[in-house]
Amino acid sequence: MSFRADILARAARGLCPACARPLPPSPPWDIPPACPGCGLVLRRPGGFFLGSLVWNYGLIAFGALPLLLVAVLLGWLTGRQAAWTALAAGMTLPWFLHRLAWRLWLGTFYGFLPGQLGGVSDD
């Protein structure tokens, strides 16, 4: 099994992982149910959404919060300021990162399982 990075790259840019057409706009808290071009189902049942939660957590825990640690180590923020900023970031960033996390999850899932896209070969 090999990973298809091109599928991840397409999905991360907001394109359909299968046909590379732009996905329709949607509210930040939601994703379109299917691609209007090829009909690829984007909202699958049975806990499929959990992958986007992992991406969202990873982006915050390993992306945003280390920046606060660096700010404390450099003396730009006090520990108390960093704690309050981390709390605020932990409460607000998931909303803003949801769509990106979902696209990254779609790209990861179909990047490892390209045969599920329909017309894309595993080669």
Helix residue percentage: 40-55%
The whole-angstrom Rg is 17 Å
Tell me the number of structural domains.
1
Inertia-based shape: elongated
Total DSSP helices: 3
Strand fraction: under 5%
The secondary-structure class comes to: mainly alpha
State the total count of DSSP E strands.
Answer: 0
Poorly predicted runs: none
Span between termini: 9 Å
Q: Major β-sheet, in short? A: none
Average pLDDT metric: 88
Order of helices and strands: HHH
Structure in words:
With 123 residues, the protein is mainly alpha-helical. It has one domain (5-117). It contains 3 helices and no strands. α1 crosses α3 (79-112). It is elongated.
Which descriptors would you attach to this protein?
123 residues; mainly alpha; 3 helices
Task: Reconstruct the topology from this structure.
Layout: H1 5-12, H2 50-73, H3 79-112
Helix pairs in contact: 1-3, 2-3
Short description:
The protein is mainly α.
